[in-house]
Amino acid sequence: MKENKFCQSCGYPLKSDPKGGGSEKDGTVSKLYCSMCYENGEFLTPPEVDNAKKMQDFCIKAMKEDGMNGFLAWLFTRGIPKLSRWN
After folding, report:
1. CA 67 to centroid of chain Cα atoms
2. Total structural domains in the chain?
3. 5: which DSSP letter?
């Protein structure tokens, strides 16, 4: 399997993930998704976040709530449509 540098759902750098990535149903670390997006083999985002645009909006809102500048939040989410979950 290809080694990914970024979560293939939200674009978060996997090396920055405190848990090292999300988890599969068997407890192994996911090589595709971060721990904020994926746990026990399931996505953690609300069911209505079902496409790249909605994921971008969801991530921007969360980053702004954490105190990030809106422009930077937008900049960090620009690549979401290119990630494997959304293709």
Report:
1. 18
2. 1
3. S
